[in-house]
Amino acid sequence: MIGISDLSLATGHHVLDLAQLAQANGTDPAKYRVGLGQDEMSVLAPDEDVVTLAASAALPLVQRHGTDRIRTLLVATESGVDQSKSVGVWVHRLLGLPSSVRTVELKQACYAGTAGLQAALGIVARDPRQQVLVVAADVARYDVDTAAEPTQGAGAVAMLVEADPALLAIDPVSGVHTADVDDFWRPNDHASAVVDGRLSVSAYLDALTGAWDDYRAQGGHGIEEFARFCYHQPFTRMATKAHRKLAQHTGAALDEALLEPTTRYNRRLGNSYTASLWAALASLLDDPTDLTGERIGLFSYGSGAVGELVTGVVRDGYRDHLRAEDNLRVLDERKPVDLATYRALHAAAGARGSEDHDVPVATSAPFRFAGVRNLARRYEGVAGA
Ligand code: CAA
Questions:
Q1: Nearest-5° angle of CA 45, CA 196, CA 183?
Q2: Which residue ranges does the record assign to the Hydroxymethylglutaryl-coenzyme A synthase C-terminal domain (predicted)?
Q3: What pLDDT digit, counting tens, does each position of 248-259 carry?
Q4: 78 assigned to active site
């Protein structure tokens, strides 16, 4: 039995209340709160990026479990900061991992964290003594004054994958669906994603039904054997759309109220792309309802497009290994920004590119982006964080 033993959340230093964005662009705030299911979005400080998010999410896992059994670090992201060097190699140094840890970055839009999990399961199956550190981390960024602007956000979730897992044992069967669709992508010379919003929603739902059908064809469990579903949440209302689609597709009566505990973190993080599904899982497990022995369906979607339905069973005693207070504190301790500050941060993000510059200290996270020297990005620990 192999699966997830630990889950830890990190996000940006700032938060924007979406009511401010609604007010500024003359939108009814209920459209964001109810129509999209989003209350807030995380905003990065100038000295934060996907490397600092990933390292900050993973640090508590290394502190709790040590590094002796970790031989692989997989960082999944679509917010990479270099075309060659993986985000994971900086994370590896910041965490003080041994040189005997292989490190790589995975990309397929919001899906790559799930690819990381599948790779980790395979590695542990070959050698059950090993642990794999999988980190899903992203900064969701669209142009301002677009329909997608309220669906930005940022976050990272680190997972420890091992044999005899403490939280969730992943079932061997999963369902997969790949199709070449131009619903959302980010060309190499663009700082923000390009998106066809309507197409992206229908491509997501097509991937869900395709993955479900494949899951069943592979011998997966019947719909009645699932207690809960977690969905990738580009905005949390998308989980409701997905659940309705799955109900319609399978003919099952699925209770939409059971989705609410999966949406609490993402309502506040905003979209965190590849981290979003795992933030939904953390949110569900951190809820006080006891899910011991229950089967959970996890639907991962990455535009472009790849979907996968992964399923797992919650382990006995899982509550003793949760980080509910820490995860909530990460959200509660963000520093609110007003609209003008958010817009200034949005405009400035990455604007200096690879020219030499220093970035002043702003974040209170354990790690920071210090600037660029000789085309190379520099990262360092934050004293006292
Ligand atoms: N009160 C309550 N609800 C309201 C409202 C009000 N005053 N006004 C509107 N609404 C509702 C609408 O009825 C609608 O609900 P339904 O979807 O249930 O019909 C909802 O609010 C959204 O309204 P619109 O459809 O008019 O929203 P929009 O066109 O302005 O933008 C969007 C929606 C296309 C999703 C846009 O936010 C977007 O492009 N987002 C980025 C793309 C995205 O997230 N796609 C998701 C699938 S792709 C994926 O999952 C990968 C990924 O992470 C990007």
A1: 95
A2: 171-246, 259-320
A3: 999 999 999 999
A4: yes
